Amino acid sequence: MRLLTCIFVLLATTVNGQKQMAITVDDLPTVSKYHTSSEAQQNLTRKILRHLTAYQVPAVGFVIGDFLRTNSQPDPNRIKLLSMWLDAGLELGNHTLAHKDYNLVSFDELKADVIGGEQITKGLVQKRGKPFRYFRHPYLRKGDTQAKKDSLEAFLKRRGYREAPVTIDNSDWLFSRAYANALLVNDTVLAARVGKTYVDYMMNCVAYYEAQSDSLFDRPISQTLLIHANAINADYLDTLLARLKERGYAFVSLEKALSDTAYQSVDHFYGKGGISWLHRWALTQGKKGTFFKGEPEVPTTIEELANRN
């Protein structure tokens, strides 16, 4: 009977023999020091949506409310970028108003930040008859004390949200800063080198977290990948998606991915780290340091380029 159950779960988490992955995109509408004008931000959004559409990715985009404002006032041009996502048939979620670090603020402050994140986006989504149901934690931090973690979980549930986990964490934001710095000095050769290194790094992250999930669950699980609405994904997301398909992935909705029973795993972790849900589950199960070895690191050259003023 146990063998039959395992076979059923394995079949349920694959599509025609393919592995499953949900793509989630944080920091909408855009987060790029290179794309500062309204026209450039529209171009960045158009590129990302073109890649997602070409590979039939039912992504969820997570919106930071303050990114929809200029001088504290709603900016129609930035709000229009969300409409582009909705026009593409994609779903939007809440990434708070100001992306506050839960390690540095109280529960009441983060609660207000969650509610503030609804101000523009929720109405825009609901006018389309679409759900506004997912919440992505800023910095993937759920609380540095048990009380803060429990309070936030209970509040989100009362508010009608489902937490949007991340199994494949990474530092795409650091690569994008390096990429933007190369573009700002018109060094297209350097930018291309950063882009290639980025895709290779991301695939190494996928391989690492696949091994982690295989170790925890003795099977492939439906993965959730976190990326950002940034410059490097505007230009290299198509390459990344192609590599993921070559690795055997089918792209599924977040709802479909979360139907995997792996996401029912107990998470007792609280602390300052913003970490993958795989590591939350592993720590809850008592896994020790050796289990976590081998996580891909960002090359020093990328970090140095990213930190240039």
Automatic annotation (TrEMBL):
GO terms for cellular component: membrane. Keywords: Hydrolase, Metal-binding. PROSITE patterns: NODB. GO terms for biological process: carbohydrate metabolic process. Gene3D superfamilies: Glycoside hydrolase/deacetylase. GO terms for molecular function: hydrolase activity, acting on carbon-nitrogen (but not peptide) bonds; metal ion binding. SUPFAM superfamilies: Glycoside hydrolase/deacetylase (SSF88713). The keyword Metal-binding applies. The keyword Iron does not apply. Residues 19-252 form the NodB homology domain. This is Polysaccharide deacetylase family protein.
